[in-house]
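Reply to thread "Modeling small-molecule complexes from scratch"

Following up on the discussion above, here's a worked example others can learn from. I took a protein sequence and the SMILES for zinc ion and predicted the complex. Inputs first:
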Amino acid sequence: MSAAAARAMARADELAGCTERPGEITRRYGTPALIAARDLLEAWMLEAGMRTRVDRAGNLIGTLGAGDRPGILIGSHFDTVVDAGRYDGTLGILLGIGCGEELAGAEPAHDLTVAAFCDEEGARFPTDYFGSRAFLGRPLPDVAMTDAEGATLASGIELAGNGAAEPGSGLPANAVAYLEAHIEQGPVLEAAGHPLGIVTSITGGAKLMVALRGTAGHAGTVPMGLRRDAFSAAAEIALAAEALARDDGEAVATVGQVAVSPGAANVIPGRAAISIDLRHQDDNRRAGLLARVRQMIAEVADRRGVDAAVEVIHDERSVRCDPALGERMRAAARAIGLDPPSLPSGAGHDAVILSDHVPVAMLFVRCAGGISHNPAESVTTADVAAALAVLTAVVGGE
Ligand SMILES: [Zn+2]
């Protein structure tokens, strides 16, 4: 298993060379770098004895087995954010391929399908799980949408997709489970000294854009009592959202985007816009928090005499991972001397989309410092070997 893990690590290094920009790892949808990475993955799938195909969006699917046994899918994504690390997404695919290699020549209890999704991060086009949605045969998003340079999604699909592919869902008819192994992207496992964790649920989240409109004016001549300062209102809203999440105890709230206009040191801001990202494992409590945040925004705006327009960009429910699958992974981990803790995933994953169609489970792999979406992403070969052993046991066993 450690030889296979070392191979997965070397492959992650090789995939890191598939990048739009030398010196960093940037591999967004519909770029030659994405296709170069897919070509490598396909070559390794073929070496592992898998049948491969590319679907109309550009997902790569490798299959092992004749379809006469229950099927397990192992998947993740091979696109990246800008200036990414080398394990987010790719590790899950490499573990799936490693699993196929480990089971070659054996009589596993399950057929194996490895699904390599072409766009999860949405780093180039404003897409939302485009790869896994397309894999399931869902309608394509608006192909006229453009990236920052004005290129259309249609042009990306033309480059990355397989125009000759059959439409429809790529989910095998015999599929009984979807497993996704992913770096934790948080510090919990490292702090507790565990190589692996079993994910209980994928936390739902809402994203709001709040646009505030006051009155721009001279910073020296308008008295404080007569101001309608849009940025001061935005700042108060940001701190109040933070306080509401803290009061809940389990929610998280983040203001990550701020725009102020006109943006001069001697002008009272007439306009401000902020994003608010709200997450909570419990859908009811998240809905309650969202309502409290909206009410708070209205109160702050009213008191400060500014107009507030709130747009809810998305509001995704939490997804519960399948407890029975989680227990199978836990039993496999115990068999190699581990006792993986259960933990929620604060980040979204392709498993969210697959969960509408098939029971899903996720295995987290400890990552150094909890760092992700960053070139400093790091995992150990020993932890990768443990994850591979768990996945192989689940696919191979009854
Ligand atoms: Zn990811």
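What I'd highlight from this example: The CA atoms of residues 6 and 381 lie 6 Å apart. Residues 283-304 form the longest helix (22 residues). Questions welcome below.
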